[in-house]
């Protein structure tokens, strides 16, 4: 979702305000009218509560572990006083009430969610059993007349993310154990383990650093030395590893436990009992693992699991499919995924060789590195490393993958080779693109490259120097004026195109807007952009927007109403998603919705297209996927289906892994029958830079 700048002028005190919002097609800010509580509703609509509530395994195992903890306290003839930190909808507190807890204190710092929890708790008849405090747990007080009458002897909380500790779980547990809980209390979940598995994954490597591009047998684009072995590569890359086929990677070692956390013992959560020290939660471990196969370690897969009870009888695992203890029933979840980390240096090992894995964490983050006796590493930093090459601060993982995509790069080389010669002057338009280097290597006389973003500019400048192309490529820090452009004597405009500000696939039509200001006759590559749509049955993606209704026997309709109300106020009907991570079946053929000739200027004030998607496969249609295709001469690069022939007989789609597609998730899924139809309309206003797709 595009962010509004802070400055806003109020139009009506209780209804709407004008805010400055960036228009990605026009490439500039403009004033738009929005609900005065837009940010408030956006935060609600974008919360991941619904995704968690659809996580059946999570819910059931929390319920089971909480029931067990309460029964154990009962057998000890103790009163059961439960504290629920970050209650959200109040679900865990209601579970505690249903299991017979004597007192329950729930805290929730997110005000709209606290108000919602109050309604949900009342709806389910537990308002007299659950005390809801709209505060952070670190603000709670204990004693007569305070937030909690006495300390709790059971803590239940869900304060985890993909990194386990990224939401501040360590600090939250430590504070609760010290100030809010009795000694020898029960904690649900009780403990956690973090796992790492070393692998070779060319796709992962392409998401991590820019690779050389081969032009022909004698020419290539080299990567600047300073962009190799960057410690900034250690940053988290979270994704759905369950959708990464095993043909895409080679496992070099078995999974290994690198850290264990006992959430019931505060002394084990800190490495420095002086919490005023700089890094009280920082810790490091060293493990030695034997390589099962030969290969290059360039990727570290990471995940975690929870022992929900002290005895370890109730396990909640986030392991990927190949390592999951319950392989036949791997629960889909989007709020806890797996993660990829990258070593600072890729290391080649032989089967049977010992590998040293160093694992580090602070209060919120992880970083890892590997070494062998043959290839020792410098001591890994005790604090989270930062990027020194600029790549990891400037390019997202998807963008790096796009720059390294051999299919794309081969199209650029082959097609530009047909139109570039020693007399050709090129204008390159885009952000952080290596196409200017390709044009220079193909022998262009001159290449003007527009790089308006400071960090992109610096990176491409490094590539130019590394490839001795200073005499051919001139970097421009802003789009040239018409007068400046005319003096350049440009023969052809080139691009991928890709812009930092673009979220939806067609936002890259900004390429055409820049061209239209400069020339009405200039040849360009790509020369066409087409928008496609296709009816889909997503196995899981629709859950992030679908109503919960009931969860473990509790009515959550008030929560559904809150999310629906906020979504209607702020959500666009199409959002950007990386669809390869979400299994989906095509229920129709791809439908061309619009085509844009990038070498001409639109003369219409408005373009209106009516289309009908025809179902070619039976199923439940819960979404419409959108993408664009760019045409370079007679060759096409797709940001959606990588190859229409790759659709299996059962309809499952192979998506481009380096771009985000657009997706419209239906509020009410529809039964798709063969030859059934679904209407789609597109409206394009060239002057205002608005493309609207309605259903």
TrEMBL record:
Boundaries of every Protein arginine N-methyltransferase domain copy: 248-359, 531-688
Domain of life (superkingdom): Eukaryota
Gene3D superfamilies per the UniProt record, alphabetical: Hnrnp arginine n-methyltransferase1, Vaccinia Virus protein VP39
Biological process according to GO: methylation
Enzyme Commission identifier(s): 2.1.1.-
InterPro entries in the cross-refs: Arg_MeTrfase (IPR025799), MeTrfase_PRMT7 (IPR014644), PRMT_dom (IPR055135), SAM-dependent_MTases_sf (IPR029063)
Keyword Oxidoreductase belongs to the record: no
Keywords of the record: Methyltransferase, Repeat, S-adenosyl-L-methionine, Transferase
Pfam families reported for this sequence: PrmA, PRMT_C
GO molecular function: histone methyltransferase activity; protein-arginine N-methyltransferase activity
The family this protein is said to belong to: Belongs to the class I-like SAM-binding methyltransferase superfamily. Protein arginine N-methyltransferase family. PRMT7 subfamily.
Functional description taken from the UniProt entry: Arginine methyltransferase that can both catalyze the formation of omega-N monomethylarginine (MMA) and symmetrical dimethylarginine (sDMA).
Designated name of the protein: Protein arginine N-methyltransferase
Provenance organism: Octopus bimaculoides
């Amino acid at each position: 979702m595009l962010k509004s700048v802070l400055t806003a002028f109020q139009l009506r005190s209780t209804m709407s305000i004008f805010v400055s919002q960036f228009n990605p097609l026009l490439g500039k800010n403009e004033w738009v009218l929005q609900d005065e509580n837009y940010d408030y509703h956006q935060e609600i609509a974008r919360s991941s509560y619904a995704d968690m509530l659809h996580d059946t395994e999570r819910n059931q195992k929390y319920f089971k572990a909480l029931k067990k903890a309460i029964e154990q306290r009962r057998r000890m003839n103790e009163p059961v006083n439960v504290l629920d930190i970050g209650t959200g909808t109040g679900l865990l507190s209601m579970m505690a009430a249903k299991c017979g807890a004597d007192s329950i204190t729930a805290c929730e710092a997110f005000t709209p969610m606290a108000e919602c929890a109050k309604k949900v708790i009342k709806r389910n008849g537990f308002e007299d059993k659950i005390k809801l405090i709209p505060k952070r747990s670190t603000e709670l007080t204990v004693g007569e007349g305070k937030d909690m009458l006495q300390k709790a002897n059971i803590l239940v909380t869900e304060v985890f993310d993909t990194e386990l500790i990224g939401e501040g779980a360590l600090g939250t547990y430590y504070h609760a154990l010290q100030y809010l809980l009795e000694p020898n209390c029960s904690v649900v979940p009780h403990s956690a383990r973090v796992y790492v598995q070393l692998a070779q994954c060319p796709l992962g490597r392409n998401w991590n650093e820019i690779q050389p591009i081969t032009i022909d047998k004698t020419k290539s684009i080299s990567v600047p030395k300073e962009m190799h072995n960057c410690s900034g590569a250690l940053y988290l890359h979270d994704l759905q590893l369950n959708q990464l086929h095993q043909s895409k990677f080679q496992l070099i070692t078995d999974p290994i436990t690198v850290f264990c956390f006992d959430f019931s013992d505060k002394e084990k959560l800190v490495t420095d009992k002086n919490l005023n020290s700089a890094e009280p939660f920082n810790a490091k471990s060293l493990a030695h693992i034997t390589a099962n196969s030969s290969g290059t370690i360039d990727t570290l897969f990471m995940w975690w699991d929870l022992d929900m009870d002290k005895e370890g009888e109730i396990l909640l695992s986030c392991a990927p499919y190949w390592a999951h203890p319950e392989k036949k029933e791997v629960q889909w979840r989007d709020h806890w995924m797996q993660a990829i980390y990258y070593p600072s240096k890729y290391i080649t090992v032989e089967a049977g060789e010992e590998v040293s894995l160093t694992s580090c964490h602070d209060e919120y983050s992880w970083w890892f590195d590997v070494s062998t006796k043959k290839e020792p590493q410098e001591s890994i930093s005790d604090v989270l490393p930062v990027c020194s090459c600029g790549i990891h601060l400037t390019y997202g993982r998807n963008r790096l993958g796009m720059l390294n995509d051999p299919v794309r790069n081969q199209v650029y080389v082959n097609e530009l080779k047909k139109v570039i010669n020693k007399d050709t002057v090129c204008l390159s338009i885009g952000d952080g693109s290596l196409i200017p280097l390709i044009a220079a290597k193909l022998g262009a006389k001159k290449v003007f490259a527009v790089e308006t973003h400071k960090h992109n500019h610096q990176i491409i400048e490094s590539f130019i120097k590394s490839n001795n192309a200073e005499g051919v490529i001139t970097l421009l820090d802003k789009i040239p004026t018409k007068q400046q452009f005319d003096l350049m004597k440009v023969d052809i405009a080139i691009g991928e195109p890709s812009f930092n500000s673009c979220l939806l696939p067609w936002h890259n039509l900004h390429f055409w807007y820049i061209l239209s200001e400069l020339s009405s006759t200039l040849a360009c590559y790509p020369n066409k952009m087409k928008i496609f749509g296709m009816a889909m049955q997503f196995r899981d993606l629709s859950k992030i927007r679908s109503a919960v209704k009931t969860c473990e026997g509790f009515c959550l309709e008030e929560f559904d109403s809150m999310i629906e109300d906020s979504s209607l106020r702020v959500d666009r009907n199409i959002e950007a998603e990386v669809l390869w991570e979400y299994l989906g079946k095509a229920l129709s053929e791809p439908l061309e919705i619009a085509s844009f000739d990038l070498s001409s200027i639109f003369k219409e004030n408005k373009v209106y297209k009516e289309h009908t998607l025809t179902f070619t496969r039976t199923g439940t249609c819960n979404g419409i996927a959108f993408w664009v295709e760019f045409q370079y001469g007679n060759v096409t690069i797709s940001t959606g289906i990588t190859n229409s022939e790759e659709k299996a007989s059962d309809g499952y789609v192979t998506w481009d892994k380096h771009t985000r597609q657009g997706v419209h998730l239906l509020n009410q899924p529809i039964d798709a029958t063969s030859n059934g139809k679904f209407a789609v309309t597109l409206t394009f206003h060239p002057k205002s830079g608005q493309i609207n797709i309605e259903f």
